[in-house]
């Protein structure tokens, strides 16, 4: 790239969002959640347990929906040439491997979670969210995959991929995905699955595939929690000893690595070119 081209890139408006703007999205989301929770919390306190299930769904979906609306509005207003969120198709041949990787990541993340257990009050909060009714399932396995993927892959990662080299964009989007849960104990597991979804979004440009991964991950976790509500580790769920747990953990890591090599080979042979960043950063 010659000097004139470099200057042209520097002066060209960056796609939305940049890393700095992504921090802004996280900050606005936090403010929206706080602003929403105060009046709604007072209403729920007055109502008691009435409509607890539907209200849990609404309390989760509304702040994220507001944030998605704000981000899309800003993108359309200031970056008119950028395409809207697209639900591109993905090659169905990779779907079985994607599901296997997702389940392996769940194995890895459950083991990691056991290393630094969350406090009891936080576990009670999770159990409340995964309540034993249709609203708990819809919130965790339907609303979360749709809304979080619209925001984090459909808007944040999509913009970062246009501004930075792919792995920088993927890692930063995974960081933001971890932070947006506003829970230190959930950060690492959200970051790791965020890397997987970010990589596959980069390769396929399919938001639908990311939603499927997210739904499989959350749905499986939901049903595991229902099968044994007090279990949070593989030892408690399946009665596995230390050796078995370590073996399962490293087997899952190996499968994820082999799947990564499979995806790399598959997409190298694919006729569909991967759109690269126009910014050499």
UniProtKB/TrEMBL annotation:
Keyword field contains Cell membrane: no
GO BP term (any one): CAAX-box protein maturation
Domain of life of the native organism: Bacteria
A Pfam family assignment: Rce1-like
InterPro entries xref list: CAAX_protease, Rce1/LyrA-like_dom
Name the record gives this protein: CAAX prenyl protease 2/Lysostaphin resistance protein A-like domain-containing protein
Domain CAAX prenyl protease 2/Lysostaphin resistance protein A-like: 133-219
GO molecular function: endopeptidase activity
Spans through the membrane: 23-45, 57-74, 86-114, 134-157, 169-200, 246-263
Organism lineage string: Bacteria, Pseudomonadati, Bacteroidota, Bacteroidia, Marinilabiliales
Organism: Marinifilum flexuosum
Keyword match Endoplasmic reticulum: no
Keyword terms: Membrane, Transmembrane, Transmembrane helix
């Amino acid at each position: 790239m010659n000097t004139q081209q470099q200057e042209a890139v520097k002066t060209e408006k960056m796609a939305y969002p940049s890393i700095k703007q992504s921090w802004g999205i996280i900050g606005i989301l936090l403010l929206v959640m706080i602003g929403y929770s105060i009046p709604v919390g007072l209403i729920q306190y007055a109502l008691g347990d009435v409509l607890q299930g539907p209200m849990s769904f609404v309390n989760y979906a509304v702040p994220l929906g507001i944030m998605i609306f704000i981000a899309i509005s800003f993108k359309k207003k200031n970056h008119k040439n950028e395409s809207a969120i697209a639900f591109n198709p993905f090659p169905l041949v990779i779907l079985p491997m994607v599901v296997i990787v997702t389940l392996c990541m769940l194995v890895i993340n459950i083991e990691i979670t056991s290393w630094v257990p969350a406090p009891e009050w936080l576990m009670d909060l999770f159990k409340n969210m995964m309540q034993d009714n249709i609203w708990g399932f819809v919130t965790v396995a339907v609303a979360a995959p749709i809304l979080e993927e619209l925001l984090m892959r459909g808007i944040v990662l999509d913009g970062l991929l246009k501004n930075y080299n792919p792995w920088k964009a993927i890692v930063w989007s995974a960081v933001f995905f971890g932070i947006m849960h506003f829970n230190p104990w959930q950060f690492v597991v959200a970051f790791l699955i965020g890397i997987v979804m970010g990589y596959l979004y980069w390769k396929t440009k399919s938001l639908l595939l990311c939603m499927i991964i997210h739904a499989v991950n959350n749905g499986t976790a939901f049903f595991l929690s229902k099968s044994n509500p007090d279990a949070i580790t593989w030892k408690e769920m399946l009665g596995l000893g230390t050796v078995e747990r370590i073996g399962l953990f490293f087997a899952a890591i190996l499968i994820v690595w082999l799947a990564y090599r499979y995806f790399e080979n598959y997409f190298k042979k694919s006729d569909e070119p991967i759109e690269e960043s126009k910014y050499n950063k």
